[in-house]
Write a structure and sequence with these properties.
The longest helix has 19 residues, at 77-95. It is built from 4 helices and 5 strands. The chain has helices at 40-43, 47-60, 77-95, 100-105; strands spanning 10-17, 20-28, 33-35, 38-39, 66-73. By secondary structure, the protein is an alpha+beta fold. 30% of the residues are buried.
């Protein structure tokens, strides 16, 4: 069997958002998702974030086909959830390249590059200036 047609058992991908980095390991299983050693529903208690994370799996119809282990560092809870979504999407594309168009159309393969702009000297913030009085 050649390397090109051989299926791997574990697929690895990295997702990033703001300062959050998620390393995702995807393998065939029963649909369990572990984040930093905890169940993802325990790690992300907010239901909207749970829906956000499982959206790529639901889109391709493989909610209970894979076990996912993820190591996440940095950022806040929302940034971590979005980084995990990107990592899962990239790992799914490694598993099956035919899933790429559907995931791309849904926007799951696009890295959101927006980050907080730095504060500039001589100003109150990144864009806000100090108040100026004419008289």
């Amino acid at each position: 069997m050649s390397i090109a047609t051989e299926k791997r058992s574990v697929y690895h991908a990295v997702g990033k958002r703001k300062t959050a980095i998620a390393r995702v390991f995807l393998q065939e299983g029963k649909g369990r998702i572990k984040v930093n050693g905890k169940d993802f529903k325990e790690y992300f208690p907010v239901e909207t974030l749970q829906i956000l994370i499982t959206a790529p799996l639901k889109l391709v119809g493989k909610e209970s086909a894979f076990d996912i282990k993820a190591n996440i560092q940095g950022g806040g809870i929302k940034g971590q959830a979005e980084a995990l979504r990107l990592g899962i999407s990239r790992a799914l594309v490694q598993y099956d390249e035919t899933l790429r168009p559907a995931l791309r159309d849904a926007g799951f393969l696009t890295r959101d590059a927006r980050v907080k702009e730095r504060k500039k000297y001589g100003q109150r913030g990144a864009r806000r200036k100090f108040q100026w009085v004419k008289r």
